[in-house]
Protein backbone atom coordinates (compact mmCIF):
# COMPACT_ATOMS: atom_id res chain seq x y z
CA UNK A 1 0.00 0.00 0.00
CA UNK A 2 1.23 3.55 -0.64
CA UNK A 3 3.22 5.29 2.07
CA UNK A 4 3.74 8.56 0.20
CA UNK A 5 0.92 9.91 -1.97
CA UNK A 6 1.18 13.11 -3.94
CA UNK A 7 -2.05 14.18 -5.60
CA UNK A 8 -1.87 16.66 -8.44
CA UNK A 9 0.42 19.14 -6.70
CA UNK A 10 1.52 22.47 -8.07
CA UNK A 11 4.12 24.72 -6.51
CA UNK A 12 4.56 28.36 -7.35
CA UNK A 13 7.27 30.31 -5.54
CA UNK A 14 6.68 33.97 -4.70
CA UNK A 15 2.97 34.63 -5.36
CA UNK A 16 0.90 34.60 -8.56
CA UNK A 17 3.67 36.12 -10.68
CA UNK A 18 6.30 33.75 -9.29
CA UNK A 19 8.07 30.74 -10.78
CA UNK A 20 5.85 27.72 -11.41
CA UNK A 21 8.27 25.08 -10.16
CA UNK A 22 5.88 22.10 -10.37
CA UNK A 23 2.53 21.46 -12.01
CA UNK A 24 0.18 18.50 -12.20
CA UNK A 25 2.52 16.16 -10.38
CA UNK A 26 1.19 12.97 -8.84
CA UNK A 27 3.16 10.15 -7.35
CA UNK A 28 2.58 7.14 -5.16
CA UNK A 29 5.41 5.38 -3.34
CA UNK A 30 4.77 2.05 -1.63
CA UNK A 31 5.90 1.35 1.91
CA UNK A 32 9.48 0.11 1.80
CA UNK A 33 9.97 1.11 -1.82
CA UNK A 34 13.15 2.86 -3.03
CA UNK A 35 12.46 5.54 -5.63
CA UNK A 36 15.07 7.68 -7.39
CA UNK A 37 14.25 11.01 -9.02
CA UNK A 38 16.41 12.30 -11.88
CA UNK A 39 16.14 15.29 -14.21
CA UNK A 40 17.91 18.46 -15.31
CA UNK A 41 18.81 21.27 -12.90
CA UNK A 42 15.82 23.43 -12.02
CA UNK A 43 13.16 20.84 -12.96
CA UNK A 44 11.72 20.84 -9.45
CA UNK A 45 13.36 17.85 -7.76
CA UNK A 46 14.22 19.74 -4.58
CA UNK A 47 10.81 21.39 -4.62
CA UNK A 48 9.18 17.95 -4.70
CA UNK A 49 11.32 16.91 -1.71
CA UNK A 50 10.31 20.05 0.21
CA UNK A 51 6.62 19.35 -0.39
CA UNK A 52 6.86 15.74 0.78
CA UNK A 53 8.75 16.72 3.94
CA UNK A 54 6.37 19.62 4.61
CA UNK A 55 9.15 22.21 4.50
CA UNK A 56 6.98 24.19 2.05
CA UNK A 57 3.21 23.98 1.63
CA UNK A 58 2.07 23.09 -1.92
CA UNK A 59 0.27 25.84 -3.84
CA UNK A 60 -2.22 23.22 -5.06
CA UNK A 61 -2.87 19.56 -4.38
CA UNK A 62 -2.22 17.35 -1.39
CA UNK A 63 0.65 15.34 0.04
CA UNK A 64 -0.09 12.37 2.27
CA UNK A 65 2.56 10.46 4.24
CA UNK A 66 1.67 7.42 6.32
CA UNK A 67 -2.04 8.09 5.80
CA UNK A 68 -1.89 11.67 7.10
CA UNK A 69 -1.91 14.89 5.13
CA UNK A 70 1.40 16.75 5.47
CA UNK A 71 0.68 20.21 6.84
CA UNK A 72 3.86 20.93 8.77
CA UNK A 73 7.50 19.80 8.61
CA UNK A 74 7.79 16.04 9.11
CA UNK A 75 10.28 15.70 11.93
CA UNK A 76 10.11 11.90 11.67
CA UNK A 77 11.59 11.77 8.16
CA UNK A 78 15.33 11.26 7.88
CA UNK A 79 16.71 13.95 5.59
CA UNK A 80 20.07 14.55 3.96
CA UNK A 81 21.00 17.17 1.40
CA UNK A 82 23.96 18.02 -0.78
CA UNK A 83 24.57 20.88 1.64
CA UNK A 84 25.25 19.05 4.92
CA UNK A 85 23.67 21.66 7.30
CA UNK A 86 25.45 20.41 10.42
CA UNK A 87 25.20 22.65 13.48
CA UNK A 88 28.62 24.34 13.78
CA UNK A 89 28.64 24.48 17.56
CA UNK A 90 28.09 20.76 18.03
CA UNK A 91 30.57 17.92 17.63
CA UNK A 92 30.08 15.44 14.79
CA UNK A 93 28.74 12.86 17.26
CA UNK A 94 26.27 15.35 18.76
CA UNK A 95 25.15 16.38 15.29
CA UNK A 96 24.45 12.76 14.37
CA UNK A 97 22.49 12.29 17.62
CA UNK A 98 20.35 15.39 17.12
CA UNK A 99 17.21 13.65 15.70
CA UNK A 100 17.11 11.48 18.84
CA UNK A 101 16.46 14.62 20.87
CA UNK A 102 13.47 15.53 18.72
CA UNK A 103 11.76 12.31 17.62
CA UNK A 104 9.78 10.05 19.97
CA UNK A 105 10.21 7.45 21.37
CA UNK A 106 13.95 8.15 21.24
CA UNK A 107 13.61 11.49 22.98
CA UNK A 108 12.18 9.82 26.04
CA UNK A 109 14.65 6.93 26.01
CA UNK A 110 17.70 9.10 25.44
CA UNK A 111 17.94 10.08 29.08
CA UNK A 112 18.33 6.50 30.34
CA UNK A 113 19.89 4.89 27.26
CA UNK A 114 22.33 7.52 26.08
CA UNK A 115 25.29 5.11 26.06
CA UNK A 116 23.49 2.65 23.77
CA UNK A 117 22.42 5.42 21.40
CA UNK A 118 25.92 6.85 21.39
CA UNK A 119 27.32 3.42 20.49
CA UNK A 120 24.83 3.30 17.63
CA UNK A 121 25.92 6.74 16.38
CA UNK A 122 29.57 5.71 16.58
CA UNK A 123 28.74 2.52 14.67
CA UNK A 124 27.06 4.50 11.88
CA UNK A 125 30.01 6.90 11.67
CA UNK A 126 32.34 3.93 11.40
CA UNK A 127 30.18 2.42 8.64
CA UNK A 128 30.62 5.57 6.50
CA UNK A 129 34.36 5.79 7.21
CA UNK A 130 34.30 8.50 9.86
CA UNK A 131 35.79 6.63 12.78
CA UNK A 132 37.96 8.89 14.93
CA UNK A 133 36.35 12.26 14.13
CA UNK A 134 33.38 11.92 16.51
CA UNK A 135 34.56 14.73 18.78
CA UNK A 136 35.61 17.13 16.03
CA UNK A 137 33.53 20.15 15.02
CA UNK A 138 31.95 20.18 11.52
CA UNK A 139 34.27 22.94 10.23
CA UNK A 140 37.27 20.71 10.96
CA UNK A 141 36.03 18.19 8.36
CA UNK A 142 35.99 18.28 4.57
CA UNK A 143 32.70 18.82 2.72
CA UNK A 144 32.51 15.14 1.81
CA UNK A 145 33.07 14.10 5.43
CA UNK A 146 30.34 16.48 6.58
CA UNK A 147 28.04 14.98 3.96
CA UNK A 148 28.71 11.49 5.27
CA UNK A 149 28.02 12.67 8.82
CA UNK A 150 24.69 14.13 7.72
CA UNK A 151 23.76 10.79 6.16
CA UNK A 152 24.36 9.23 9.60
CA UNK A 153 22.15 11.91 11.14
CA UNK A 154 19.40 10.99 8.65
CA UNK A 155 19.62 7.31 9.68
CA UNK A 156 20.14 7.43 13.46
CA UNK A 157 16.44 7.42 14.45
CA UNK A 158 15.64 4.60 11.99
CA UNK A 159 13.07 6.69 10.11
CA UNK A 160 10.26 5.03 8.13
CA UNK A 161 10.84 7.68 5.43
CA UNK A 162 14.24 8.72 4.09
CA UNK A 163 14.40 11.83 1.91
CA UNK A 164 17.81 12.19 0.27
CA UNK A 165 18.52 15.15 -2.00
CA UNK A 166 21.85 14.50 -3.76
CA UNK A 167 23.38 13.18 -0.55
CA UNK A 168 26.58 12.01 -2.27
CA UNK A 169 27.12 14.96 -4.62
CA UNK A 170 30.30 16.16 -2.92
CA UNK A 171 31.97 12.75 -2.77
CA UNK A 172 34.64 11.26 -5.00
CA UNK A 173 33.49 8.25 -7.01
CA UNK A 174 35.13 5.65 -4.74
CA UNK A 175 33.65 7.02 -1.53
CA UNK A 176 30.34 7.43 -3.30
CA UNK A 177 30.21 3.77 -4.31
CA UNK A 178 31.11 2.74 -0.76
CA UNK A 179 28.15 4.75 0.46
CA UNK A 180 25.81 3.17 -2.09
CA UNK A 181 26.66 -0.13 -0.43
CA UNK A 182 26.03 1.36 3.03
CA UNK A 183 22.68 2.80 1.99
CA UNK A 184 21.64 -0.44 0.33
CA UNK A 185 22.60 -2.39 3.44
CA UNK A 186 20.51 -0.08 5.62
CA UNK A 187 17.60 -0.30 3.21
CA UNK A 188 17.69 -4.10 3.05
CA UNK A 189 17.91 -4.35 6.83
CA UNK A 190 15.22 -1.85 7.85
CA UNK A 191 13.20 -1.27 4.68
CA UNK A 192 12.52 2.43 5.00
CA UNK A 193 10.63 4.11 2.16
CA UNK A 194 13.29 6.10 0.29
CA UNK A 195 13.07 8.99 -2.16
CA UNK A 196 16.50 9.85 -3.55
CA UNK A 197 17.25 12.80 -5.83
CA UNK A 198 20.41 12.31 -7.85
CA UNK A 199 22.21 13.48 -10.98
CA UNK A 200 23.95 10.15 -11.24
CA UNK A 201 21.98 7.68 -13.38
CA UNK A 202 24.23 4.84 -12.35
CA UNK A 203 23.44 5.60 -8.72
CA UNK A 204 19.69 5.67 -9.49
CA UNK A 205 19.76 2.34 -11.31
CA UNK A 206 22.02 0.71 -8.75
CA UNK A 207 19.90 1.65 -5.75
CA UNK A 208 16.28 2.16 -6.76
CA UNK A 209 13.28 -0.05 -7.56
CA UNK A 210 11.90 2.70 -9.75
CA UNK A 211 13.45 5.72 -11.45
CA UNK A 212 11.30 8.79 -12.10
CA UNK A 213 12.43 11.27 -14.70
CA UNK A 214 11.37 14.91 -14.39
CA UNK A 215 11.28 17.66 -16.97
CA UNK A 216 11.18 21.44 -16.51
CA UNK A 217 8.90 24.38 -17.39
CA UNK A 218 6.87 23.59 -15.48
CA UNK A 219 8.41 20.73 -13.52
CA UNK A 220 6.61 17.41 -13.75
CA UNK A 221 7.28 13.69 -13.86
CA UNK A 222 7.50 12.64 -17.53
CA UNK A 223 8.51 9.01 -17.28
CA UNK A 224 8.98 6.17 -14.90
CA UNK A 225 11.11 3.07 -15.23
CA UNK A 226 10.97 -0.01 -13.08
CA UNK A 227 14.40 -1.56 -12.55
CA UNK A 228 14.51 -5.34 -12.92
CA UNK A 229 17.04 -6.63 -10.44
CA UNK A 230 19.60 -9.18 -9.72
CA UNK A 231 20.45 -7.80 -6.31
CA UNK A 232 18.96 -9.27 -3.11
CA UNK A 233 15.37 -8.20 -2.48
CA UNK A 234 13.65 -10.18 0.23
P1 LIG B 1 16.02 21.10 -8.94
O1 LIG B 1 16.12 20.60 -7.54
O2 LIG B 1 15.48 20.08 -9.89
O3 LIG B 1 17.28 21.72 -9.44
P2 LIG B 1 14.33 23.16 -7.77
O4 LIG B 1 13.19 22.47 -7.15
O5 LIG B 1 15.44 23.61 -6.90
O6 LIG B 1 14.91 22.25 -8.97
O7 LIG B 1 13.80 24.41 -8.58
C1 LIG B 1 12.68 24.38 -9.47
C2 LIG B 1 12.37 25.79 -9.93
O8 LIG B 1 11.91 26.57 -8.83
C3 LIG B 1 13.58 26.53 -10.50
O9 LIG B 1 13.12 27.35 -11.56
C4 LIG B 1 14.04 27.37 -9.34
O10 LIG B 1 14.67 28.55 -9.80
C5 LIG B 1 12.75 27.68 -8.61
N1 LIG B 1 12.95 27.82 -7.14
C6 LIG B 1 13.45 26.87 -6.32
N2 LIG B 1 13.48 27.31 -5.04
C7 LIG B 1 12.99 28.57 -5.07
C8 LIG B 1 12.75 29.57 -4.07
N3 LIG B 1 13.01 29.34 -2.76
N4 LIG B 1 12.25 30.76 -4.47
C9 LIG B 1 11.96 30.98 -5.76
N5 LIG B 1 12.14 30.11 -6.75
C10 LIG B 1 12.66 28.90 -6.41
P1 LIG C 1 20.64 23.03 20.45
O1 LIG C 1 19.84 24.31 20.42
O2 LIG C 1 20.58 22.32 19.14
O3 LIG C 1 20.35 22.14 21.60
P2 LIG C 1 23.19 23.62 21.81
O4 LIG C 1 22.61 23.00 23.03
O5 LIG C 1 24.52 23.20 21.34
O6 LIG C 1 22.19 23.49 20.55
O7 LIG C 1 23.25 25.21 22.02
C1 LIG C 1 22.21 25.91 22.69
C2 LIG C 1 21.96 27.21 21.95
O8 LIG C 1 23.11 28.04 21.97
C3 LIG C 1 21.66 26.96 20.48
O9 LIG C 1 20.28 26.89 20.20
C4 LIG C 1 22.29 28.13 19.78
O10 LIG C 1 21.30 29.12 19.48
C5 LIG C 1 23.27 28.73 20.73
N1 LIG C 1 24.67 28.56 20.27
C6 LIG C 1 25.65 27.89 20.92
N2 LIG C 1 26.82 27.94 20.28
C7 LIG C 1 26.59 28.63 19.14
C8 LIG C 1 27.40 29.04 18.02
N3 LIG C 1 28.70 28.73 17.92
N4 LIG C 1 26.81 29.74 17.05
C9 LIG C 1 25.52 30.06 17.13
N5 LIG C 1 24.73 29.75 18.15
C10 LIG C 1 25.22 29.03 19.15
From TrEMBL:
Similarity comment: Belongs to the ABC transporter superfamily.
Keywords noted in UniProt: ATP-binding, Nucleotide-binding, Transport
Organism phylogeny: Bacteria, Pseudomonadati, Pseudomonadota, Alphaproteobacteria, Acetobacterales
A Pfam family annotated for this UniProt entry: ABC_tran
InterPro entries per UniProt: AAA+_ATPase (IPR003593), ABC_transporter-like_ATP-bd (IPR003439), ABC_transporter-like_CS (IPR017871), ABC_transporter_ATP-bind (IPR050166), P-loop_NTPase (IPR027417)
Protein's recorded name: ABC transporter ATP-binding protein
Domain ABC transporter: 4-234
PANTHER family, per database record: ALIPHATIC SULFONATES IMPORT ATP-BINDING PROTEIN SSUB, TAURINE IMPORT ATP-BINDING PROTEIN-RELATED
GO molecular function, one term: ATP binding
PROSITE patterns found in the cross-reference section: ABC_TRANSPORTER_1, ABC_TRANSPORTER_2
Amino acid sequence: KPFVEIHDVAMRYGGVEGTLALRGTSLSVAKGEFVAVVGPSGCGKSTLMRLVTGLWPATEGTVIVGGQEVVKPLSVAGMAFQNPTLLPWRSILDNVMLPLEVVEPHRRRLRTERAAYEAEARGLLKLVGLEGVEKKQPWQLSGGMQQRASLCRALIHQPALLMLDEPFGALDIFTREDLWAVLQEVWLARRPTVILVTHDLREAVYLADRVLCMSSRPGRIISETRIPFSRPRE
